[in-house]
Amino acid sequence: MTSAYASPPGGYPPAAAPPAPPAVVATEVSKVYGSGDAAVHALRGVSVGFARGVFTAIMGPSGSGKSTLMHCLAGLDTVSGGQVRLGDSEITRMSDKQLTLLRRNRIGFIFQAFNLLPTLTAEQNIKLPLELAGRALDQRWFEQVVEVVGLRDRLNHRPSELSGGQQQRVACARALVARPEVIFADEPTGNLDSRAGAEVLGFLRGSVREMGQTIVMVTHDPVAASYADRVVFLRDGMVVTELTRPTPDAVLDTLKRLGA
Amino acid sequence: MLKTVLAGLLAHKLRLVLTGVAITLGVGFISGTFVLTDTVEKGIDAQFAASADRVDVAVLPKKPGPELPAALLARVRAVPGVTEAHAMVQGEAALVGADGKVVGDSPTAGLSVSDGTLQRYEIKQGRAPRGPSEAVVDDGTAASQKFRLGQSITILDRRERPHRFTMVGVVDFGVASGTAMNGAVGFDTPTALRMTGMRTLKEIDVLGGDKAAVAGAVGGSFDVLTGKELGDRLVAEVGGDTEIIRIGLLIFGLISMLVSALVIYNTFSILIAQRTREMALLRCVGASRKQVFGGVVAESAAVGLAGSVFGVVAGLGLGHGSIALFNAMGAEIATAGFGLSPRTVVIGLLVGVLVTVVSALLPARAATRVAPIAALRTDHEPGGGRFRLAWPRATAAGVLGVSGLALGVHGSLIMKKGGSAISMVGIAGLLVFLAIIAMMPAFVRPLGWLVGAIPARIGGVPGRLAVENARRSPRRTATTTIALTIGIGLMSLFAVIASSAKASTSAQLDKEFPVDFQLEAQFSDGETPRTIPHELAAALRGVPQVGEVGEMRVRRSEVDGRPEEVGTLNTGALGTIIKLDFSEGALADLKPGTVAVNSDVAKSRGFGPGATIKIKTRRGVVPAKVTGVFGGDAPAPSILMTEPDFGRQFGAVEPTEIYVNAKEGVPAADARSAVEQAAKPYATVKVRSVVEVKKELTKIIDMVLMIFAGMLGLAIIIALFGIANTLTLSVVERTRESALLRALGITKRQLRRMLSVEALVMGVIGALTGVGFGMTLGWAATNAMAKSAIFAVPVLQIIGFVVLAGAAGMLAAVLPARRASKASIVESLASE
């Protein structure tokens, strides 16, 4: 076993009719670091779409380009070729300033570690993206999110006074409270023990099921991936296969076949 | 270990540069001071050597000893072998300027100038004077009066009779003559003796003959020197002046070094905290505590050495640059070669390295406490979190603060005003400042909250984050800001003292000089004070624009056997133009046969009310009863008697000062021109108004303040490097945090603004502490100075200091901010 997570309980939602336009689409995206002999092709023409209201995991062995793909999808990094669309905006053409505004208004992030600002309380951290965007806070929605992640009595604590799992739940709440078009999660459970990890993954899946949130998560953990509705596999900078309604075993098998 | 240290230094050049700059600036100032004073000294030496070289033998008065009688010249000339002898005469000969009034507040010096080989001044234009109708003028005065060669000039003799001369030369009399302040005119020796009224000589320079022969001729009561000995003596006399300048500048240099030390201490503390892993790794692979300690100390020594080397080079530039600047501004500083002595280099390097190493000792000790296991742990933020005063620090701060405050209160409120009270306040200030240093980390959070209230409110999220960032590591912020506090604190202290001094004197002048104009003769160091003809007072009384006229008459006399000034004010002036502040008795008690005494004299001589003193007059020694004591700073003679008494005892004496009030309703300008018209025939009489006196005073005080501010500017610049340093290191530390913010949607500009606001808050915290400290100390010092001192706060200046500190802090943030905003988000997220 590579993970101690329990398998996700319960069944899957009924497969709906194919949802209208996908939230994020990558078309022939390539990414090259360096040049000449030293050039490293991190992505070699990746084309993939991410449907709205779906929890998608991106997997692949180390060096497969999964993190690079996520960075390009989220407008954190520039592409060498191809295009990325978020809704009807082509983000590969945007300036740094436009990208910043895009991230602020339409994208949520959860990182593996160092997710919170140490100088702010949990509540301030959660509200940060809304305040940056200058958007009004929907108090009821905030209450609901805080309730779901179970942070009510921790709101006035600073990150240094919270456990790793609690910190990551604050990060989840922060991503959810702004109701972004898509949340990108980069190894969100990488630094957590199995129980805390399962909790966080549970919230993420719950937010997709109950709130219709779109989530794209990069992970190398088959159990974490099994919480997703769909798993996209990368190897050597290309999409090689994908699974829907994955189980940890199916994910593990696929990875083995890919030679991980 | 040394190899590791050097490799680490080279790998982090920026770190090296930032730390080194603070040291470079401090050392640069110190070595610049030495270069400047050495160069000036060398120039003077060369000048003296050159002029003394021409002399074979010189005769000078012994110190102490009688002056050289004029008759001595003939005796020296008669010595066999003597081919030429020049008598140096130096007295006063007031030059009349282009406006018909004498030049300057004191008469110009009158000197004898030789037209032979013994001529030792630098003749810039024309030639030396010959005969009774030729004179030369010093270059500064000739330029300011716009005199041209060949023109006719008027010079007053000792008895103020005008004589006309042809100006045949413009001469630089040099530093040795001591005439730079008042200017000078030169004649041939007989004319100089006649004009100055001197009967003695300053020096006799001899060509030919030998020392023994001349010594035999003049006898044992005078010094006889060879040319070389003369040069050495002149150099020694002026050397004292350069020494004072040097010490003055070095005090400011030391302040700069103190600030540098704080900056270095802080930089090393942060570096050590950030390199905890590196240190732990070294421990893991087998480095001992001693080696880690040695490594940090070696690193500081290397940085200190590099910074000091640059500092010495910078000092060389600074020293020569300032000479060039002074010369461009009209000063004439002779330069002879490069004034970089080995001593300058040694002192510069030694001070720089020592200060750096000593500042790094505490951080180095902290480095040894890093456990090897820390290499494997993810560390949390260094130096962060709330600051709690540990008991040793709290005790130290308490003891220092309380004793400082107690001494301050004692010095400023209880002790007798004057020098020792001021010293007491000074010591109190030092103690309180040390307490502030100890307590500062505890002040950072509340002060940061206070200062940050506005930026946090109007700066949006970046503003709020910035304020939090400034408050997050109290120790770090405290040390960074204390460096600024020193400079700003001293500046506010001087500003407050200067403004209080202005207010106090101004109030004093208003109180004791209810006069519109004051007429006085040029000040002279002669035996009797210069006087104004009584006719002028009489004439003024006839001028329609003039109201009251007061006259002060003074005689130097002896009271109870010791010299004292005795005088009078005319009856009409007492209580009208001149209001005396009586501490004992009253003006009404001053009757014939009695005197009132200045309080300073009353105190020092013990002339209390009721005492009878014996005054020497031209009618012999007469007794007088003391009936009153008046304020020390009043414009009245020390021993004041009634006008009839004074006339009886001393006869007709001309007034030394005349006070004039304009008639009610007459515009000041009209009154002034009327008074000036009346005074026109009297070349030595100057008309001054209280407003002018105040202006002059203000000008002098402001100039001194400007010089101080300029010198302290360096300490402030170093402190700003400290802010830049701290911010740069913080930016490195917060790489991932910045990346997270960028990912969450903060723009580059917002990120830059965040750092600017953080620097602004730090700058203002430092400035506020400094301003608070400086003003309080200024208040205490003002109180300690004199009973009548008025405390005045130069509000605009003080606000200016705070604004300046904030703006400068933001300037210091420019580079770190650019660096932070340029970092790639993806790479920064991945970095550790």
UniProtKB/TrEMBL annotation, chain B:
InterPro entries: ABC3_permease_C, MacB_PCD, Macrolide_Exporter_MacB. Residues 17-193, 477-677 form the MacB-like periplasmic core domain. Residues 251-370, 711-824 form the ABC3 transporter permease C-terminal domain. It is found in: Cell membrane. Its main location: membrane. Keywords: Cell membrane, Membrane, Transmembrane, Transmembrane helix. It is a multi-pass membrane protein. GO terms for molecular function: transmembrane transporter activity. GO terms for cellular component: plasma membrane. The chain crosses the membrane at residues 16-36, 247-272, 292-316, 322-340, 345-362, 390-409, 421-443, 479-498, 703-732, 759-782, 788-815. Belongs to the ABC-4 integral membrane protein family. This is FtsX-like permease family protein. It comes from Actinomadura litoris.
